[in-house]
Amino acid sequence: MLHKITRLTVRDVRFPTSSEQHGSDAMHSDPDYSAAYVVVDTDCGRKGFGLTFTLGKGTDIVVCAVEALAALVVGKCLQEIVSDFRGFYRLLTSDGQMRWLGPEKGVIHLATAAVLNAVWDLWARVDGKPLWKLLVDMDPKQIVSCIDFRYITDVLTEKEALDILVNAQVGKQQREDQMLKEGYPAYTTSCAWLGYSDQQLKQLCTDALKNGWTKFKVKVGADLEDDIRRCRLIRQMIGPNNTLMIDANQRWDVGEAISWVSSLSEVKPLWIEEPTSPDDILGHATISKALAPLGIGVASGEQCHNRVMFKQFLQASALQFVQIDSCRLGSVNENLAVMLMAHKFQVPVCPHAGGVGLCELVQHLILFDYICLSASLSNRMCEYVDHLHEHFTSPVVIQDAHYMPPKDPGYSCEMLESSVWRHQFPEGDVWKLHTNK
């Protein structure tokens, strides 16, 4: 079977999470977790499912961008794509006219991620494996062949990447067995959204501790005195030995970030996430240098456009924690490049997740990172947000605050059709009740 792609459809799916302040932070006070949801159909009846994450308004713009890319995909055979996946990646990102809209950044790159996520899902389904297992079982040369090394060879060459992967073959089976038994460590962001009341925060922390959570992230950045109060409260709730991280979602200027985080150092955060503009590489480097004596690292990446920016963040020692995103970057292909560069610089990868489907997607990538690259769990964890998993056919499985490896074939981002219809914007039943949106 050639598995020729005969059709690509995309829908605007939105969830009214802003009504209960889920996802609220210092810069995004009313997010409606949403997705541009892609389905590719093939001539033999197989389907692939993909998405990219948004916050509500503007999802329709991403949908338009996906539709603009569809002509580059429809008519291609799966075997043709995966035999030269690097070439297919470049086909989508280097169209002589559409690349002007990026290149490899913004709405057009979000759309590229959604399309490529669906193709990777299709490949894993055809192969009968969950995506992480498809990657783990690949020959190192095949993995390297999926990566576009253009613009990053000054830091990572194809040969270096191959050597890293070959060297990591030692102990690979033991690490895979370990993950199947224990899972990958996670941290929770669900307890301390900025819009939550103290009572809600206390209850959620209490429940999380009972369920085995030991790593917690807190949203900060709107008001310093309130941040100090809330962080003290959470530190008191979780105790001195559990891990606390703080996240400003790009709220501050560089000097303000250094001053603000210094004032929060008493609660001993492991990192400050997105302290300033996600594009300010040298600003992050300045903050990293200033906070190092306090033992506080800098984390970022969920809005880092592409592998080139990650390259520069690493070159500038601007990040102590790399946060890959399964939908901001150009799908698995580009995330492979970033994970390899992070390994070379010995910076731990701690993926961004949450939203709609991000947990489902990124769990596959971090399993690959541990089994085939890092071979380390030191200062490594994957974000988890307990929202909207019930809308997926293969939702994440969390046991004792660990991601358990998915077993179903694919990339885990197929949504229940009933959920898609109810939440499709603006005609879905849910949105008929939210006419103000």
Automatic annotation (TrEMBL):
Catalytic activity, reaction form: L-fuconate = 2-dehydro-3-deoxy-L-fuconate + H2O
Keyword Phosphoprotein: no
Gene3D superfamilies attached to this UniProt entry: Enolase-like C-terminal domain, Enolase-like, N-terminal domain
GO biological processes: amino acid catabolic process; carbohydrate catabolic process
CDD domains linked to this entry: rTSbeta_L-fuconate_dehydratase (cd03324)
Gene Ontology MF terms: L-fuconate dehydratase activity; magnesium ion binding
Transmembrane segments: none
Annotated signal sequence range: none
Cross-referenced InterPro entries: Enolase-like_C_sf (IPR036849), Enolase-like_N (IPR029017), Enolase_C-like (IPR029065), L-fuconate_dehydratase (IPR034610), Mandel_Rmase/mucon_lact_enz_CS (IPR018110), Mandelate_racemase_C (IPR013342), Mandelate_racemase_N_dom (IPR013341), RHMD-like (IPR046945)
Alphabetical UniProt keywords: Lyase, Magnesium, Metal-binding
Its EC number(s): 4.2.1.68
Annotated Mandelate racemase/muconate lactonizing enzyme C-terminal domain residues: 198-294
Pfam family, one: MR_MLE_N
Necessary cofactors: Mg(2+)
Family to which this protein belongs: Belongs to the mandelate racemase/muconate lactonizing enzyme family. ENOSF1 subfamily.
PANTHER family membership: ENOLASE SUPERFAMILY, MANDELATE RACEMASE, MITOCHONDRIAL ENOLASE SUPERFAMILY MEMBER 1
Protein name: Mitochondrial enolase superfamily member 1
Organismal lineage: Eukaryota, Metazoa, Chordata, Craniata, Vertebrata
Gene behind this protein: ENOSF1
